[in-house]
Design brief:
The protein has helices spanning 48-56, 99-102, 113-119, 126-135, 149-161, 179-195, 231-234, 266-276, and strands spanning 6-15, 25-33, 37-41, 63-68, 92-97, 165-171, 199-203, 216-221, 224-230, 235-238, 249-251, 257-260. It is an alpha/beta fold. The longest helix is centred in the middle third of the chain and has 17 residues, at 179-195. It starts with 5 loop residues before the first strand and ends in a 5-residue tail after the last helix. The structure holds adenosine-5'-triphosphate. Adenosine-5'-triphosphate (ATP) is lined by residues 17, 20, 24, 42, 44-50. Residues 8-247 form the ABC transporter domain. Keywords: ATP-binding, Cytoplasm, Nucleotide-binding. InterPro entries: AAA+_ATPase (IPR003593), ABC_transporter-like_ATP-bd (IPR003439), P-loop_NTPase (IPR027417).
């Protein structure tokens, strides 16, 4: 059996959209190990979505090498992994959940949540489906057209995460979630990467609740990778003192970074909403 060393391997990737002069990604090289969570950080237009879409096979890479689970994401082979030695059963190579996916038509139709989930294989992944519905507090009797945006997004996330994947490519799809749902989703993804062979790559602009989450952070600007941090080794949170105000960042020698403790409202919002929802955990 071939051993696939990395969840994702990219070498010298340059990608230019048809009709564009400037490349959206330039000389990108990265290796993402198994059982890790990677954050991709960068401003609007930096190239995060392009990177995730290339990894999911939505765009064809012509310059450079991309492998996801040891396969070219554009190859038909990478659509589905056979159920052979896998302890976790039916697994797909990658799942991409991004902006276009958020706008799927079905979520606004007059259809029951149970019917919708059964139509995409709930019975086949019943245990996983039950866990996801529990985590995201889905009522199977809900009807899609009567739900709030956040409730619709939660159902969508159950749909998107129902089938296990080797690599999850998450392109900020948590904006509509309340802090409890987002925190539980992040915990679920952490648990997944700790308990089976998989990795998560997450591009986001929302940093609340992420202090204990990533293993690696990639910083991307104008299509180039500027920084790569081994989060546990390179980043520390320090107590504020007179010299630093909350949230100050100090770039030390090498790639070591100190961040003075941040006064985030996230824990308070989480506590309030837990109280609102009678959750004692
Ligand atoms: N379909 C497309 N056709 C042509 N150019 C595109 C296309 N999609 C993105 N681009 C360009 O590629 C560059 C990178 O865009 P990308 O969507 O990857 O950025 P991003 O980092 O995900 O930004 P955001 O934080 O706003 O989502 C931008 O300059 C953008 O204008």
């Amino acid at each position: 059996m071939t051993v696939i060393s990395y969840a994702v391997e990219i070498e010298d990737l340059t990608y230019t959209f048809p009709g564009k002069k400037e490349a959206a990604l330039k000389d990108v090289t990265m290796q993402i190990p198994w059982n890790t969570r990677t954050l991709v950080i960068g401003s609007n237009g930096a190239g995060k979505s392009t990177l995730l879409k290339l990894l999911s096979g939505k765009h064809l890479c012509l310059n450079g090498k991309i492998q996801v689970n040891g396969l070219d994401p554009f190859s038909p082979l990478s659509m589905h992994l056979p159920n052979n030695d896998e302890a976790d059963g039916d697994v797909q190579v990658s799942t991409y959940l991004g902006t276009e996916w958020c706008h799927m038509n079905i979520i606004n139709r007059d259809i029951g949540v149970l019917e919708l989930l059964e139509s995409i294989g709930l019975k086949h992944f019943q245990k996983r489906g039950d866990l996801l519905c529990d985590i995201l507090e889905i009522d199977l009797e809900w009807r899609m057209h009567q739900l709030s945006d956040g409730q619709k997004r939660r159902v969508q996330l159950v749909m998107g995460l129902l089938k296990p994947w080797r690599v999850l490519l998450l392109d900020e799809v948590t904006v509509d979630l309340d802090v409890i749902a987002r925190s539980r989703l992040l915990d679920f993804l952490k648990m997944e990467t700790e308990t089976r062979k998989c990795s998560v790559v997450y591009a986001t602009h929302i940093f609340d609740g992420l202090a204990q989450w990533p293993d690696n952070i990639y910083h991307i600007k104008d299509g180039r990778l500027l920084d790569k941090l081994d989060y546990k080794k390179d980043v520390e949170f320090t107590i504020s003192n007179e010299k630093y105000t909350n949230g100050d960042v100090t770039f030390n020698k090498g790639s070591h970074i100190s961040i003075s403790k941040v006064n985030s409202l996230h824990p308070l919002a989480l506590a309030w909403l837990k109280r609102d929802n009678n959750i004692n955990e």
